[in-house]
Amino acid sequence: MFSLRPACAALLISTALVLCSSIPARAQLEEGPVPGKEALNPGPRYSEAIVANGFIFLSGSTGTPNTTIEDQTSEILSGFNETLTSLGSSLDAAVQSHVFLANLSDFAGMNSAYVQFFTSNPPARTTVGTGVLGGELIEIDMVALAY
Fold first, then answer.
1. Alpha-carbon distance 133 to 102, whole Å?
2. Contact 61, 139 (CB under 8 A)
3. For the chain, which ranges sit under pLDDT 50?
4. What is the DSSP pairing of strand 124-129 with strand 94-101?
5. What value does the CA radius of gyration of the chain take, rounded to a whole number of Å?
6. What residues does 138 pair with on adjacent strands?
7. Cβ–Cβ contacts within 10 Å for residue 113, how many?
8. In the chain, which ranges are continuous DSSP H helix?
């Protein structure tokens, strides 16, 4: 039987989604901060979100270092909700998320905050322990339907 490590499977799925969604129509967010949210300035080769072929692809986001896993998870998902709302969508339209935890022992704390944002029909989710995230406890990326 063929099997992949979770991180490899997540990467393959993300790559396939990007390749399939980059067929002709691709619109990038306007330059500048998303309304209602302080924008990070990671550089010119970064897109906070891409709208393509009926989907919104949200780049990976991390929480504020030196806060709890619950706080970081809530901060990320609140930010995603603001971004999706500004694009006419919402977390209710989320279809997939990838969660990267610096330590898998934080799963329960992450999950307790995560489920508060998805009370019904949560997106498909892959959770991977990475061992290293540069000081943050968690990173999440997401794909949602564009309305």
1. 6
2. yes
3. 1-4, 6, 8-12, 15-40
4. parallel
5. 15
6. 101
7. 19
8. 6-21, 69-86, 107-117
